[in-house]
Amino acid sequence: MTRIVAGTVGGRTIAVPPKGTRPTSDRVREAIFSRLEHLDVLDGGRVLDLFAGSGALGLEAASRGAVEVVLVDSARRAADVARRNVADLGLTGTVRVVADTAERYSAGAVGPFDVVFLDPPYDLAEPALAVVLEHLAAPGVLARGAVVVVERSTRSPEPTWPAGLEPFARKDYGETAVHYAEPTA
């Protein structure tokens, strides 16, 4: 069972696709959001959740004060589950779901975003992730002081950070590694 940890819809459960996704655990989500709240990028912020799956990360952001959230997933089933979660939580005015690939959406993303989540399948090849990160580093996509959060396996190499994105932290939780980066300009 996956639930929203805190905020206006904290404690509510959300549906997850029956297969093909790996929801971020409550413990890891709580740690991520604790850091983001400390960095003061959520309240009133714009959030992009790529490889969204059920939408748990973006929905948590909306619950904690983000004013606009875009959930992007290429799997039709995941996008449908995310739409249902948005409606069930009453977040239709704040959260929008897009059925598209992270690569295609990020190539045309209209920012600025204050927070971007990337929680791709662990088997996504590093070059494919690097392309998405390169798109995010383009001028106008990230706000000044934005945070990019990448969730990977601890066995995966460090993401290939493009010019314009500087890593500032990594934290491991069991099999999950969470990487944080910020724009350099």
From TrEMBL:
InterPro entries: DNA_methylase_N6_adenine_CS, RNA_MeTrfase_RsmD, SAM-dependent_MTases_sf. The keyword Methyltransferase applies. CDD domains: AdoMet_MTases (cd02440). Keywords: Methyltransferase, Transferase. One of its GO terms (molecular function) is methyltransferase activity. GO terms for biological process: rRNA methylation. It comes from the Bacteria. It holds the Pfam family Cons_hypoth95. PANTHER family: METHYLTRANSFERASE. This is Methyltransferase. It comes from Isoptericola variabilis (strain 225).
